[in-house]
Amino acid sequence: MTIKQESVFIKLAESQTLHLRRISKTDAKGPAVFFMHGAVENGKIFYTHSNKGLAPFLAEHGYVCYVADLRGRGESKPAISKHAKYGQTEAILEDIPAFLDKIKQLEGEPARYWVAHSWGGVLMNSVFARFPELIDDVKACGYFGSKRSLYNHHPSKYIQGNLIWYGLAPLVARKHGFVPAKKLKWGSDDETRKSHYQSMQWAKRKPWVDTDDDFDYANALADKALPPIMHVAGVKDKALCQPIDIEKFMEESGIGKQTMTIYGRKFGHKVDYDHINMLTHPQARFDQFVDLLNWFETHA
What we know:
By secondary structure, this protein is of the alpha/beta class.
């Protein structure tokens, strides 16, 4: 079995190029899966060049995987700098639609399955709110550690959320013109000042309303049945996404079918998973990866 990787580039604007990583078996004809990373990271959370990770795992089972890098992240160019004025509104209205259009162009049909990590799930549901016509294109979703607002009260949440994200990050963004999260070891990629500001507002339990045009995402989704969503929680994900945080996100994400499973040894799994290793640990393929595969097949 040969897993092939190749890069697909999308000219978004005169000075912006988006990157998609296509991962599949040679001559695979299976349905396409669209992957969306979270804040201060890029698409590498889903794969390595040596074919480790969730995207290569699904590719082994016949899926054609497309892993996105939002503008400025990963292999999208140019990298984030003080000159980057875009934020999550642009990701929702421009970047993600451009990725989906390219996948449809290459595969001849839409991406039938969507997968997100962390804030990527918020972006995906925001896209469903803005473009409800996409809902019928998607058969099922899998969200790993995705929440909108932080409701948990773990001490580490007050360090990573309140102290760093709400306190220090705005100061750093003001000084540098962006959040150099990679240099500060706050994440695997940087964040624009606007994107940080917008995500910070939503993470603070403020209304799910766009700061650019006041679009009310929660209201738009209130009566919508989104594709079936499998939520993955990790027992060691104490600061960034506890079950209470996921439950609150589920409550404001429409009336469709949603389920949550917590992954850890006390629940019969091989590892006590955290926010990152729920996607990067070698044992994940025997726990949440195979469960996601079954979820997709159940909703095929």
